[in-house]
Amino acid sequence: MTLRVGVIGTGMIGQDHIRRMSTVLSGVRVAAVTDVDADTARRVGAGAGATVHATGAELIADPGVDAVVVCSWGPTHEEYVLASIAAGKPVFCEKPLATTQQACLRIVEAEVAHGSRLVQVGYMRRYDQAYRALKAVLDSGTIGAPLFMHCAHRNPSVPGHYEKEMAITDTSVHEIDMVRWMFGEEIAAARVLVPRRSRHGGDLQDPLLLILEMSGGAIVDVEISVNIRYGYDIRGEIVGEDGTAALGELSPVTVRRSGQVSGPVPADWRERFLRAYDVEFQEWIDSIASGSGPVGPSAWDGYAAAVVSDAGVQALHSGERVTVSLADKPKLYAEEVAA
Amino acid sequence: MTLRVGVIGTGMIGQDHIRRMSTVLSGVRVAAVTDVDADTARRVGAGAGATVHATGAELIADPGVDAVVVCSWGPTHEEYVLASIAAGKPVFCEKPLATTQQACLRIVEAEVAHGSRLVQVGYMRRYDQAYRALKAVLDSGTIGAPLFMHCAHRNPSVPGHYEKEMAITDTSVHEIDMVRWMFGEEIAAARVLVPRRSRHGGDLQDPLLLILEMSGGAIVDVEISVNIRYGYDIRGEIVGEDGTAALGELSPVTVRRSGQVSGPVPADWRERFLRAYDVEFQEWIDSIASGSGPVGPSAWDGYAAAVVSDAGVQALHSGERVTVSLADKPKLYAEEVAA
Amino acid sequence: MTLRVGVIGTGMIGQDHIRRMSTVLSGVRVAAVTDVDADTARRVGAGAGATVHATGAELIADPGVDAVVVCSWGPTHEEYVLASIAAGKPVFCEKPLATTQQACLRIVEAEVAHGSRLVQVGYMRRYDQAYRALKAVLDSGTIGAPLFMHCAHRNPSVPGHYEKEMAITDTSVHEIDMVRWMFGEEIAAARVLVPRRSRHGGDLQDPLLLILEMSGGAIVDVEISVNIRYGYDIRGEIVGEDGTAALGELSPVTVRRSGQVSGPVPADWRERFLRAYDVEFQEWIDSIASGSGPVGPSAWDGYAAAVVSDAGVQALHSGERVTVSLADKPKLYAEEVAA
Amino acid sequence: MTLRVGVIGTGMIGQDHIRRMSTVLSGVRVAAVTDVDADTARRVGAGAGATVHATGAELIADPGVDAVVVCSWGPTHEEYVLASIAAGKPVFCEKPLATTQQACLRIVEAEVAHGSRLVQVGYMRRYDQAYRALKAVLDSGTIGAPLFMHCAHRNPSVPGHYEKEMAITDTSVHEIDMVRWMFGEEIAAARVLVPRRSRHGGDLQDPLLLILEMSGGAIVDVEISVNIRYGYDIRGEIVGEDGTAALGELSPVTVRRSGQVSGPVPADWRERFLRAYDVEFQEWIDSIASGSGPVGPSAWDGYAAAVVSDAGVQALHSGERVTVSLADKPKLYAEEVAA
After folding, report:
1. A327 in contact with B at a CB cutoff of 8 Å?
2. Could you tell me which of A58, A80, A82, A61 has the C-alpha nearest to residue A69?
3. Angstrom distances, CA of residue A314 to CA of A104, A174, A317, A318
4. pLDDT band per the 50, 70, 90 thresholds, residue A338
5. Residues D256-267 as b or e (16 or more Cβ within 10 Å = b)
């Protein structure tokens, strides 16, 4: 019972997922690919032994495709996800679900009309061993009700086309999804504090301090530093009424040399979250193969992340606290994060 | 050349400093004591072999007293510090320097009129080994210019008379002094964010998130949790352009037992800062004995802490960002923290 | 190109590897199974959709089996590995390769006669992320030539049938293989020191201190504690001329509660080495599928481990230092660990 | 009540203790000094405001000297300690107590004849915060009866006159005293294992592995590396029946930079044990001043260390296990470490 997956978008991320499904994971086969760049699609498709389609629509319609993975350019996500829903096929969409909250809401509505979950969004942190251990501690009640979460999202550098809003929409959106899942609550408001700029960021406003208020009243602060140079470093500590719990240090080796005791910091997000991506896809594959359907980040989660992102960008521009206003949550997602 | 110290106030803190000067430190002798509670003064004075005075004024005037330590009730600090300055005697004043910024400014003006430093204020964190190591890293330039400092000040519990403003004026005032010293900058503005309350705090608004803006543009966030139960925990991490530096973990012993690897957390501030108090007083004694005069936290530092505290309290009440407005800094303190 | 594997032995370990190959790894299918307990074989075979054979010989002869995994009772390993070599099929044999060094040598000779590597032995530590990071540091030269390695192998408890020799042959044999690989050297001598017994070990001589001398002159000490109660803990530190390198602490989460800062210790070897087993099998599968043949622990490694084990047992019985004496190393293994 | 101390030997160690007693500690004054180098004695004495004596005998006889500190050349220790006992004066003798076990035994006998303790030997590790925390865990019973202690004593380098026996007599003698105190047991036997030499040690046999058997049956292994380059590193882990306890990591600051998370390692023993020396002397001073007499390392401890050292040197030369044979322990030391 091998799941036959069609991949829309064979750029860097798409190729990485094709490699993952072809050579790392169990119970899956890349059956079809397509890309706006037909040459790349042909080359990648040949390497994977997959049928090459001219368009996403054709790929989705292919009876040899059981489920769809969308890794194309963000503005195209809505179209492919809606088409997958229309075809009744499970679809894994890399973040963002869509580029506007309105588009996300259209997907939510289409899925609700379909009547069962088909969509999963690619927020991989929920699959990271350290975040899962952190959530297990929180859920155990051993540190009491959460009051704060202190986070840091540090990138060694960003590409030249990175714009200041991307600190919210592209970088900290991972924390936005993570804390909704971690706390089992929606985000109620956002604000952004702006310190002096790093000399490494050029004209970019880097770093930022994003402050989120959870619906239950806890405050989450997220340092977003995208030119920190020293490595890729993801930190998180929950402060509860009775104690705290933090992501552990995960250095595989400790070296003593030249007056220092030290361990390595991951070089980039690939190194840090390599396993999380594997687990994310394997669990998705297993959920489709078992017939239970996707249980990971939902269209609602994708929509909520978009709304909070928008609020964050507005807060960045205005310097003010911005309230997050979500649509009514459909029953389909009732067992998901509660507002 | 033993320094003869007179101690005003023989309550808990005063007795601890008398013990310190009598049995731990070098080059010092407690020559005189006084307290509003004459019985306590007599008992403590007898134990220390010290003259007992009826009033602070009398003690300050005693020719057998070379220097004064003020540990009395806060509202009396101004009077005793001014009297010491008038007598031309060095005076170590436990925090706060005085209970209003106006009173602090009167002390500053009196000292400026005297023409040289006589006053030191009891901010002991500047003498802590870990904070000093942190400052050495920052000053070395190895992590670049500072952009953030993330702090936590966690108390296991507070006494019944603790009121919500004390989270700023009594608890986080240590961070207020520390960051001015750490960054070599004044604080430009304050704001306070308020999450849901801990059930351990009763009616108290606990915890709080104090946000300070440094004059150089860095942002300092301070989690203030005064009912955290698990221990006394002081955390601090500076984020620079090229890296970060944090207070180390200082567990003297690591135990593996019952499925856990663990180390102890200090039970209270006495345990955590015991050595810092010793070093603080020894350096003060040595500075007086050597004739150089005090080099630790100055009357200006005490004044600045009071102004920032006031701004913090105003921010707590208003929910707004409050600008810190300091008087012009006298030349006497020119080598101190620069605005 | 799915590798079709036949599994001999469907006990606990065999079932775990069948689960791994069926639901975790890529490019592999369990095509056939057999077990001395025919009922278990039928049940497990049905679950995996695999042909059930009456005997190991029949399974090895099955043309639908590309490669063999041997997880049966130790005394049967020699027969099945030799039969696989005779059939020219790659064979992965769980440790031990065989129960005597003479039997191991017969396998080495059979493989040499065959002319290329077919055999891999199941020493999974070489696939552990932390050990690999440690070896990368050592191989980089950054800590200089190795002088010591300090190891600990701690089990929370052992089953009732565990006998004292098993501390060497079953438990520390993992360190025996690991240090040969880590140092790229053979072991020259062994001795065993015996402290007082743990009350948890009953009549068992537990713990032990195994001392190994490497051919290059470094000394390896291995604490073997098999009733340590608190968890499963594997430690290793290499002391070089210029520094040291140690397996890192890998707690995914750090909790502060009740006066302690703590992290979890793995409960057992499954938890600690789960990923290492996955990587071990995936790399083995890939090496067979690619036609390069196995590159993991070889028949020679299995033989060397058996010889060192025997020396260790003799050292345990005699209390004396025992020299390790290996046969001449065939050229087939020339690129392996050098004597 | 200031204790007036006479210091015999004003070399590097003596000067450091004079500095300590003059400028760091409470309740003490350096009243007299002497040295074989009269010029140094005069210079140091003048700096400390102390009487300068021509000989140790004269200093000990000085009625202005309440207690004696012996920091002179090792071969002179016996004479000065015996003379102090004869004068009925407390004497703190830097290690070693004397250069032969016979001389140590003569001191023990003289003290026994005197009838109460006068002698304390300068083993400062018993005063180190981390070792004390480790002993508190062991004594609490929480990790059960001790089975092993794994130690490392690492020096960045040693002076040119360092000879191979000094690894035992000068370096690991600190561990020899420490484990007797830690376990409350005598050492029953010693052996030394010799790995390949570090290239940094020249002709020196460096490093060594010293193995000690405690009278209760626990085994202590001590890595002695005296050219490790990277810093001064003292490690210790006790393995008990129910868990383990280890000296903690004590880095005051944690830096993230250039792909590494790191903390400093102490540069030398002065940095690592600075506070232990202070505490050692303050407690000694207080014990003399209070009239209770010394409670730190006794003449018996000095004697036992000498006997174990001799056994260790013999083990180094012979390669064999050497039994430690102590004289009968006088009742005077009954509450000390029990055989």
Report:
1. no
2. A80
3. 18, 18, 5, 6
4. very low
5. bbebbbbbbbbe
By C-alpha distance, the chain D residue nearest A251 is D261
Compute chain C's Rg from CA coordinates: 20
Residue of B228, B260, B318 to mutate when probing chain A, most A C-beta within 10 A: B228
* B257–A contact, CB cutoff 8 A: no
**Given CB atoms, is D321 within the 8 Å cutoff of chain C?**
no
C-alpha C118: how far from chain center: 17
Pick from B232, B258, B261, B271 the residue to mutate for testing the C interface (most C CBs within 10 Å).
B261
Nearest CB neighbour to B218, from listed A144, A195, A242: A195
Characterize C316-335 residue by residue with b for buried, 16 or more Cβ atoms within 10 angstroms of its Cβ, and e for exposed: beeeeebebebeebeebbee
Q: B157, B265, B268: best mutation site toward chain C, by most C Cβ within 10 Å?
A: B265
Question: B145-192: per-residue pLDDT in tens?
Answer: 999 999 999 999 999 999 999 999 999 999 999 999 999 999 999 999
Does residue C45 have a pLDDT over 50? Answer: yes
pTM of the model: 0.96
Count of CB contacts below 8 A, B vs C? 50
CB contact (8 A) between residue B150 and residue A150: yes
Q: How confident is the model over B213-243, as pLDDT tens digits?
A: 999 999 999 999 999 999 999 999 999 999 9
State whether residue A228 sits within 8 Å of chain B by CB: yes
Q: Which residues of A touch C247 (CB under 8 A)?
A: 252-254
What is the rounded CA–CA span in Å between residue A88 and residue A111? 9
Give the CA distances from residue A6 to residues A32, A57, A58, A70, in Å, rounded to whole numbers and listed in that order: 4, 11, 10, 9
B203 touches chain A (CB under 8 A): no
Cβ of A112 under 8 Å from any chain D Cβ?
A: no
- A339 pLDDT tier (thresholds 50, 70, 90): very low
Which residues of chain B are within 8 Å of residue A228 when distances are taken between CB atoms?
A: 239, 242-244
Q: Are A144 and A218 in contact (CB under 8 A)?
A: no
Distances in Å between the Cα of B276 and the Cα atoms of B181, C217, D269 are 15, 48, 22
- Quick check: helix, strand or coil at residue D135? helix
Q: Does D182 touch chain B (CB under 8 A)?
A: no
User: Which 8-state DSSP code applies to residue B157?
Assistant: -
CA atoms within 13 A on the CB side of A134: 29
Return the CA Rg of chain A: 20
Residue C233 one-letter amino acid: D
Contact, C236 vs C131, CB < 8 A? yes
Q: Please indicate whether, in this complex, the C-beta atoms of C258 and B233 are within 8 angstroms of each other.
A: no
Q: Which of C150, C254, C271, C281 to mutate to test the interface with A (most CBs of A within 10 A)?
A: C254
SS3 B297: coil
ipTM over 0.85: yes
DSSP reduced 3-state for B100: coil
The DSSP H or E segment spanning D29 is strand D28-34
Q: What is the pLDDT of residues C200-251, one digit of tens each?
A: 998 899 999 999 999 999 999 999 999 999 999 999 999 999 999 999 988 9
User: What is the band of D335 on the pLDDT scale with cuts at 50, 70, 90?
Assistant: low
| Interface contacts (A, C; CB < 8 Å) | 106
Single out the residue of B78, B75, B72 nearest to residue B37, CA to CA.
B72
Length of chain C: 339
Q: Do B261 and C249 touch (CB under 8 A)?
A: yes
From C153's Cα to the closest Cα of chain B, the distance in A is: 14
Strand order in the sheet with B67-70: B51-52, B28-34, B3-8, B67-70, B91-93, B119-121
